[in-house]
Amino acid sequence: MRPRVAVLTIIALLLATGASMANPSGEGDADRDYTCGGSCHGDPALSSPSDGTVTVSVSPLAFSGTATAVHVTVSGMSLSGNRLLGVFLLGSANGNDDHPEDHGWSILQDPNGGTRNYVEVVVPPSDSVTLTWVMLAPVQPGMQTLLTEIHHGSSPNSNNWAYSALTRGYVVDVQPVPENLPGFAFDWSPEARVTGDDSPTVISTRNTTSVSVQWMLEDEWVPHNAEVTGENDEWHVMLPATIGDTRIQYQVTTSNGDFSIVQPWLTVATEPAAFDGEIWGARIQALAFGLLIIAFLLSLQARLSPWDGHHELDHTEEVEATESPPEEPPGLEPADDYWSRMVPSEENPGWLWDPVVEEWVADPNNPPEGGE
Amino acid sequence: MFGAATFHAAMAEVVVGSMVLATLCAMGCAIATIFPNIAGGRLSSERVMVTMDKASIAGALLGLVFMPIAALSGSFAADNVVNNALLYNKFVYTGLAFGFWASFVIGRVRLGPGIWQHRSLSALQGATAAMAMLMTTMASSIGGKLVRGESLFDIMPVWLPSDSATVLNPILSAVLLLMGIAALVVVFRLGPRAERIPLD
Predict the structure, then answer these.
(1) Does position B159 have pLDDT exceeding 60, yes or no?
(2) B164 to chain A, closest Cα gap in Å
(3) Looking at the whole model, is its pTM more than 0.80?
(4) Is A314 within a domain?
(5) In this structure, are A112 and A153 located in the same domain?
(6) Cα dist. A241→A224, A228, A247 in Å?
(7) 8 A C-beta contact, residue B150 and residue A20
(8) Cβ separation of B92 and A305 shorter than 8 Å?
(9) What is the domain range of residue A223?
(10) Size of interface A-B (CB pairs under 8 A)
(11) Which of A37, A48, B18, B78 could form a disulfide with A33 if both were Cys (CB 3.0 to 4.6 A apart)?
């Protein structure tokens, strides 16, 4: 009976591992080609068509080097227990050189505040999520294509499949930028801020003589004006600090007298505060805790030990053993009673002779004359 | 050649495997001492007790020898950089596991197999092994969280903290380290001397 229970338990444990997928917590945001270059989920035996709906919204016209937004809305798909969704923004679907930057685009900000073309998000209970990439259009004018792909799991998912879908290509006509058009500097990208940091956000521009900025919380409808200082295409914008899960969006308007360009909404990317531990601190702390534990437990073991020995520094018994008691004077028997060893003297009435300490003691039964 | 992470995984498996054996046997010995009539007295029979005692000390010794190797290889696998609370806690839990296992081994070596004949000492050894295994499991569980983003302990409703770390100032840690060394000197040189317990 018992071996059967043991075997069944082992089989149950082995079967339980089937519920676990290869990377159930995702791979994290990254720069990736179509289906990660054909690895893992690119294998048809490991993937299946998604049941979700993907909608892409992008302006069909963009000026070279200017900011443009790509909105991707994904809805109605099955999801795994952790509701994770991976979304690619691609310039092609070849399996290599598919990153938009391989086609001249420059990602200014991805939906998670970084600069990646693959991001992972947790889909809210509404089963719909909209992601926005803000990109600088290629410097070279021409017809450009943008595609999106999604990856997600399902629950249950006994085959450990990745469910994926690839949209059609959305064509963007990149036109030569009008001379003196104000916009973001080519090498500028939004900085990430630590939670609670309210230091000014630096914005670099080109062909710009003035900048105005509006900000609002993610779920707000009415934007607020932000204080902007600076000159010579270097601007400092005062935005509130982000705390907790709140996200702040801001929109920059670049002007120069001839043009006034409203840039796409950007998000204040918030990153956790840098961890202040370091390896030697961890090592010393770990070793200190370990030694203290050892000392405590060894003390406890000694305390509970049944050995009835004595303290190592307590040598009382050894000293007492080596020291012999004072010998009695010859001819005298050891007296039990102090007074019985006293010797009366006729020459000194009232006094008794103590032969051990060799001194006269007053006889209590016959006190010396004078009361001494 | 192989990477430090691969070597660390192999060493960690040796450590955890040995420690599981040591813990099961130590717990068996403790239970047999406290409840001598359990399983019809078969668990507390001399043959089983001797076997469990030897297996527990052998497993704990093997794990203890490989633990520093696993810790060092893990440190190299992380490029000797601690940049998050999980990794910091992995170090701390490893230190705690080392402390508990070292106490278990030293106690057994100093007091001998007779340690299992005394209820209080037997309970202390069993509890030490259990705590040591808990710390070892925490450290290895954090490894799973770091590499794969999940751990078997994710399904546990209550678990020891690992997402946030208590980072002590290195100077305070150094003071604690000195205190630990001093405490050990006091225990070994000035405290009551523990001797092997004679077997009945």
Answers:
(1) yes
(2) 10
(3) no
(4) no
(5) yes
(6) 14, 16, 10
(7) yes
(8) no
(9) 183-271
(10) 163
(11) A37
